[in-house]
Design a protein that fits this description.
With 309 residues, this protein is mainly alpha-helical. The chain has one domain. It is built from twelve helices and two strands. A two-stranded antiparallel sheet has the order 1-2. Helix 1 packs antiparallel against helix 9 and helix 4 crosses helix 10. The chain is globular and about 50 Å long. It starts with a helix and ends with a helix.
Length: 309
């Protein structure tokens, strides 16, 4: 029994390294296939190289529908999440579409039969003000990856705003439940490692839909893993990534406790966000004939704009 516990960190590290290598291999294969394809992806960078289930999928459509144009030099019309492939000026590189559509339908059924009913019940007992506070708390907890990615992209003003937001909301805002920083006009776009990779010229690679997760490109999937590694919650508070020389709030050997806490927090975050957007997502689903294509188009436009910001 003792030997099994002692070997757990080694096995965990091996799995993490294996996952990282697999994601990197997907990125390389996808980018190579994209380059070989007769459909070339137009550049999304300026001359100076500017750079998450049904919940996340519908969110991509709604977010893109509410945004302004990417850049006047690249696109004169606002984003249209319901545009057909090719109409938006972006290449929708989706060589895994047969697999993606099946996973997409699986995610929709999970949302329809599990997530949405749970979120509806949650919405009945949880006041909207508290739901917004929970959403603010989880956003505040992701401060470190946003800060690091601002720095990596040379956006030092954005990094400063992120520090200011964190200090204000963590202290005056009761650990982030109240977003006083936005009332003080401390607002900056959210940066992630997928955007950082795009900033440095890494192509997006194929579009991919993962079970129980939002849509990604292969680049953004690698970036998502990178953001997990950057977040000290996963190695300083509740370690699923073990660094032997760094102490943690929950001891490294007590992996079950850390996993249960993180799983509970993730379920709460997803259900809370779904509850906040019940009516909006219902409207998107009802007004869209080809939801898969609309979500894909909206997601790619949204990511292109995020890299250019």
């Amino acid at each position: 029994m003792k030997a099994g516990i002692e070997n757990t960190p080694i096995q965990s590290s091996t799995k993490i390294v294996g996952l990282a290598l697999f994601a990197t291999a997907l990125l390389c294969i996808g980018c190579a296939n994209q380059a070989a394809s007769s459909r070339s992806l137009p550049s999304l960078h300026t001359d100076h190289m500017n750079p998450p289930t049904q919940l996340a999928q519908a969110s991509a459509v709604e977010t893109a529908a509410d945004t302004d144009p990417i850049d006047l030099e690249l696109q004169e019309e606002p984003f249209d999440p319901f545009a057909q492939a090719g109409e938006s000026g972006l290449e929708e590189y989706d060589p895994w579409e047969p697999m993606n559509t099946k996973v997409f339908e699986f995610n929709r059924k999970m949302d329809r039969w599990i997530l949405k009913p749970v979120a509806t019940g949650y919405d009945m007992i949880m006041p909207n003000l508290l739901q917004e506070g929970v959403s603010n708390f989880f956003y505040n907890a992701r401060f470190v990856p946003r800060l690091v990615n601002n720095v990596l992209q040379g956006k030092f003003r954005g990094a400063g705003i992120e520090v200011g937001r964190f200090l204000v909301n963590t202290t005056l805002g009761a650990a982030g439940f109240i977003d006083w920083a936005s009332d003080m006009d401390l607002i900056t776009p959210e940066e992630d490692f997928g955007q950082t990779l795009g900033y440095y010229g890494v192509p997006p690679g194929p579009y991919v839909v993962v079970p129980l997760y939002p849509p990604f490109t292969v680049r953004d999937l690698v970036g998502y893993a990178g953001d997990v590694f950057m977040n000290p919650i996963y190695w300083l508070a509740f370690p699923v990534i073990e660094i032997s020389q760094i102490p943690s709030a929950v001891p490294h050997h007590n992996r079950l406790t850390s996993s249960l806490i993180l799983l509970t927090a993730k379920v709460e975050e997803v259900v809370n966000d779904r509850s906040l957007n019940l009516e909006k997502f219902q409207g998107v689903e009802e007004s869209t004939l080809d939801l898969y294509s609309a979500v894909r188009n909206a997601y790619l436009q949204k990511r292109a704009k995020a890299i250019l910001e």
